[in-house]
Design goal:
There is one protein chain. This protein has 406 residues and is an alpha+beta fold. The protein has three domains: 11-143, Butyryl-Coa Dehydrogenase, subunit A, domain 1; 148-246, Beta Barrel (Butyryl-CoA Dehydrogenase, subunit A, domain 2); 255-400, Butyryl-CoA Dehydrogenase, subunit A, domain 3 (Up-down Bundle), CATH 1.20.140. It has ten helices and eleven strands. The chain has helices at residues 34-61, 68-74, 93-106, 108-128, 131-143, 255-289, 301-329, 335-359, 371-383, 388-400, and strands spanning 4-5, 11-12, 148-151, 167-171, 174-185, 192-198, 204-210, 216-217, 232-243, 291-292, 295-296. Helix 1 packs parallel to helix 3, helix 4 runs antiparallel to helix 5 and helix 8 (335-359) packs antiparallel against helix 9 (371-383). The longest helix has 35 residues, at 255-289. The protein is globular, with a radius of gyration of 21 Å. The chain binds flavin-adenine dinucleotide. Flavin-adenine dinucleotide binds next to strand 3, strand 5, helix 9 and helix 10.
């Protein structure tokens, strides 16, 4: 391991060796096909080669490694389960999940770059767009030649997107778009934005807004202590004239954005387990190598309790998402089932990151290990795409039949 101290005196472990090994306590690999395992190994190698050597440095500087957008396209990380005829992967939902798991094992921000593009930009264009829109945008989004973002959240409407005030007014062959979106992943670098806005009847419509349209700006949000390697911004619309040809014709209402969120939440359910596996892997190795009171700290029962609980939770989460994947492949995964898995994976991953930090002692707060970066990232992952509590309410409503949101 090299110590690359930089000019700020900050320890820069950009050349840190990535010693990660997968963890499969219940032989879940036996439930996976050769294609799944191939996809996993390919993305794992790519992450070790392209992400691990640079990620601490980029996260430290709160800078997005923009050069990875193209690489993510090359490994098929954008819309892996969308059809091959549009340049996408044509894989199944388990492959999509495994790819997200491996990317997030590297960094939640890198996984976010990919899942926004695939699930929140490409998926709505595929599902609700015209054939012309599909052909125009999907192949270029699949390669990373175009970057997209998804605008649903507003400054005053986060968990309650139905209250949005961004709106469109009919103006002949175009709509005039006004309003603002907040917390938008990829927005400052995006070529296009899939934006959700209310029409004059109050119905939510999806539009493809292109960079360069007059009145459309994308200021960056600074000061994040989480997802620092992912770029986040606003979308501001001041009388933007959006041609009617850019409206997604095949959906009206909140079910449009919510179905995209289901697709993305499914990926997060897998992805967060990747971050948990990385924390566990690092903690396990540290517990075998770090000696205190004359023996490796892994020999102490309190350390074993932490590690045993971590691998138990990882294994339970792996089984949950595998089953969710088989349901998704059969077109039977419900939004409420996806909510349960998203909430569970994020929650256990954050707990595991905190326990792993303790096992690493003081070293756990440094960028010599990935723990603190994962822990900070997971605070966002727990919150975006529906907060921890919102997903609990979704499960509560599903089992009781009562809506406790309002
Ligand atoms: C880094 C980052 C990237 C993001 N990327 C995107 C993106 O690309 N596109 C996009 O559209 N959005 C994005 N988001 C926004 C994200 O989805 C929202 O932050 C999230 O939905 C929560 O909304 P909020 O932050 O406004 O919190 P609020 O909705 O204000 O919630 C605050 C708290 O109140 C609780 N709460 C709210 N309503 C209820 C209720 N009925 N009952 C009980 N508790 C309740 C919540 O659980 C939470 O704890 C991103 C956010 C972050 C931080």
């Amino acid at each position: 391991m090299q110590d690359n101290g930089n000019s700020n005196g900050v320890v820069n472990k950009s050349a840190r060796e990535d010693r990660f090994q997968g963890h499969d306590y219940y032989n879940i690999d036996e439930l996976l096909s050769d294609d799944h395992l191939l996809a996993r190994d390919a993305v794992r190698s790519w992450v070790k080669q392209e992400v691990s050597p640079i990620i601490e440095d980029y996260a430290n500087r709160a800078e997005c490694p923009k050069h990875l957008f193209k690489g993510l396209g090359e490994i098929g990380a954008y819309g892996p389960s969308l059809p091959a005829e549009y340049g996408c992967g044509g894989m199944d939902e388990i492959s999509y999940g495994i790819i997200m798991q491996e990317l997030e094992r590297g960094d939640s921000g890198i996984r976010s770059m990919a899942s926004v593009q695939g699930s929140l930009v490409m998926y709505p264009i595929y599902k609700f767009g015209s054939e012309e829109q599909r052909k125009k945008y999907l192949p270029k989004l699949a390669t990373g030649e175009l970057i997209g973002c998804f605008g649903l959240t507003e400054p005053d409407h986060g968990s309650d997107p139905g209250g949005m005030i961004t709106n469109i007014k009919d103006d002949g062959d175009a709509y005039i778009l006004n309003g603002a979106k907040m917390w938008i992943t990829n927005s400052p670098v995006a070529d296009i934005a899939v934006v959700w806005a209310k029409d004059e009847e109050g119905k939510i419509r999806g539009l493809i807004v292109e960079r360069g349209m007059k009145g459309f700006t994308t200021p960056e949000i600074h000061g994040k202590w989480s997802l620092r390697a992912s770029i986040t911004g606003e979308l501001v619309f001041e009388d933007v004239r959006v041609p009617k040809a850019n409206v997604l014709p095949n959906v009206k209402g909140l079910k449009g954005p919510l179905s995209c969120l289901s697709k993305a939440r499914y990926g997060i359910a897998w992805g967060a387990i990747g971050a948990a596996m990385d924390c566990y892997d690092s903690a396990l190795r540290y517990s075998q190598e770090r000696v205190q009171f004359g023996k490796p700290i892994g020999q102490f029962q309190l350390t074993q309790k932490k590690l045993a609980e971590m691998i138990t939770e990882i294994t339970k989460a792996q089984l949950l998402v595998w089953r969710l994947g088989t349901l998704a492949n059969a077109g039977k995964a419900t939004p409420a089932q996806i909510s349960m898995a998203k909430r569970n994976s994020c929650n256990i991953a954050l707990q595991i990151a905190r326990e792993a930090r303790q096992i690493h002692g003081g070293m756990g707060i440094t960028n010599e290990y990935p723990i603190m970066r994962h822990m900070m990232n997971l605070e966002t992952v727990l919150t975006y795409e529906g907060t921890h509590d919102i997903h609990l309410l979704i499960t509560g409503m599903d089992v009781t039949g009562f809506n406790a949101f309002k």
